[in-house]
Amino acid sequence: MKVLAILYDGGEAAVQESRLLGTVENKLGLKEWLESQGHEFIGRSRIMLFKDQCSSTLYKEGPNSDFQKHIVDAEVLITTPFHPGYLTRDLIAKAKNLKICITAGVGSDHIDLNAAVDRRIQVLEVSGSNVVSVAEHVVMSILLLVRNFVPAHEMIERGDWQVSDIARNAFDLEGKVVGTIGAGRIGYRVLQRLVPFDCKELIYYDYAPLPEAAAKAVNARRVEDLKDFVSQCDVVTVNCPLHEGTRGLVNAELLKHFKKGAWLVNTARGAICDKDAVAAALADGTLSGYSGDVWNVQPAPKDHIWRTMKNPLGGGNGMVPHYSGTTLDAQIRYANGVKSILDNYFKGKEQEAQNIIIGLGRYETKAYGQR
Amino acid sequence: MKVLAILYDGGEAAVQESRLLGTVENKLGLKEWLESQGHEFIGRSRIMLFKDQCSSTLYKEGPNSDFQKHIVDAEVLITTPFHPGYLTRDLIAKAKNLKICITAGVGSDHIDLNAAVDRRIQVLEVSGSNVVSVAEHVVMSILLLVRNFVPAHEMIERGDWQVSDIARNAFDLEGKVVGTIGAGRIGYRVLQRLVPFDCKELIYYDYAPLPEAAAKAVNARRVEDLKDFVSQCDVVTVNCPLHEGTRGLVNAELLKHFKKGAWLVNTARGAICDKDAVAAALADGTLSGYSGDVWNVQPAPKDHIWRTMKNPLGGGNGMVPHYSGTTLDAQIRYANGVKSILDNYFKGKEQEAQNIIIGLGRYETKAYGQR
């Protein structure tokens, strides 16, 4: 059986750090295991090309890439959300042998899921493998925006000391209203971690209410209308999957309903927030800060405006590359999870229900917009 | 009555942002109130001079500073911990009229407390005014060190994208052992905020055990021996006052007992950690990171090694100027607190017990090393 894994180049780092399992070099720790069972394992890297223009269209691999070459006869495709191998409908048409796609991590929007349904290709994720990692990153990002960390650290690095220039835009999280768009596996963990911060209120927006006990445990109130929801938040955090119903959800129109000077954290998917609308809102002070690790195209082009955008006081940018869900702790969990999914697949055993995005010919989750 | 306030220059920021109450420009909002009662109010800034050599000795104001000129006949001295006006025994000897020192914030180690006892000068703080602010900063700092935020953000700013270079030193807080040196008003709030992060264990080192219910509420275990304590921690956070018993507490000898690659966060006072020992430990990987907002002398000299020190992978520095306790939210609280202490003083009313560091001729707290 041919297993194709599109991972990311770890380079020297991966040679020195064997716990960097999600890299081409360390191959999720799967190579020997697969080959010992007689399978063919092709581990390739996502080609890193920077496009001149950033766009919200899917980033396509070139026709001569290893991905395009090997997808033709691979039965199993493994990808990551970090340097995603984008599996478009066109590529799926070429992938005559493909039966199962496994995302090493959480978030399979880089795969054309409707096309996978049509072709009866299963799509699985390692659900839960990095939800805590991402939730921690969200709480960190909220704190560093509200508390104005980045300009403070930059001030120290450049040899200055002017407390008032930092303090004038530094606040406590205590007493603020924090709301999550999406209160699923990650969003709920964010709420849990915020409970002891004595926020004024925790609220959420989701297509369904939380179970009563779960809502009570974090004392979170649901707001059903999105505009109404954002208008109540000092901090908005995005924790929903990307699908056609959430693409561009936070756009210029919605930003008009935000509280003046709110902070926005998005570690879900870049394309949920409109790139230019966010940059404009930060520049004019509609937002005091924007932070996250996800971009509408990854790797982000060198000139992507989110790399350098700032608020009127020169701060408010907490962007990082997409790594919140790929800490070394998370890599162990999703490498083990991929192995377990593969093992079930080889043996014809049932998959864990929570990992199945697309079963044979149908969505098994509502998380990607299927109601 | 002459009231002297040594605050910090807010400059243009304070003109534009009236909530920057702790600045010379905005005078804790006290000027009109004091003058309306017939008091003389002198609000001056701490002179900002960078010393060529950083040292652990107290930074002294020049003899011609406004501080030295007005301290001679002031009855009330107001200072802040952020740009502290250092009140040495020499200065106290000159301050013939001084009856009460009020710290707008928490932490009065910039005052020679023993000299204040000898001269029967009261010392009060606005206890609780910024403990939450600092505790939030601690949790933020722990997360950003453990998760390797700063190098990730720098990578984005400079136009790069190499996830593996970040992920190789990024971890989750979940499953780690976090310990606080000091489980008082700030340290305990740190523990409270860490509870939902599912750390492997929360531990603390303090001269007295927490009340049983308080310890149980955060599920924290006390370790009585400091070397034993640090050897168990993945993350050590310093939350104790600076006094002769804690000066240089984290030194080269103690660092030998840290877990290899531990993270250290200190928002208490810079001089609790030995400057050069910390820098050396970060450089050789004994520490993976050091973060905080306090320095052995403030403002920190331009060439202070803590500004630019790094771990062997080029990260691990989360330093900022001293502002964690002076968010705009905290400034409202400590400005109101100073007013309340002044009001009690003018009216001869009893002060709130929790605010009194030095009463008439004696320590009223054990927090500054008096057992």
UniProtKB/TrEMBL annotation, chains A, B:
Domain D-isomer specific 2-hydroxyacid dehydrogenase catalytic: 49-350
Amino-acid positions noted as binding NAD(+) in the UniProt annotation, renumbered to this chain: 185-186, 206, 241-245, 267, 293, 322-325
Protein's GO biological process: formate catabolic process
Main location: cytoplasm
Name under which the protein is recorded: Formate dehydrogenase
Enzymatic reactions: formate + NAD(+) = CO2 + NADH
Subunit structure: Homodimer.
Example of a GO cellular component annotation carried by this entry: cytosol
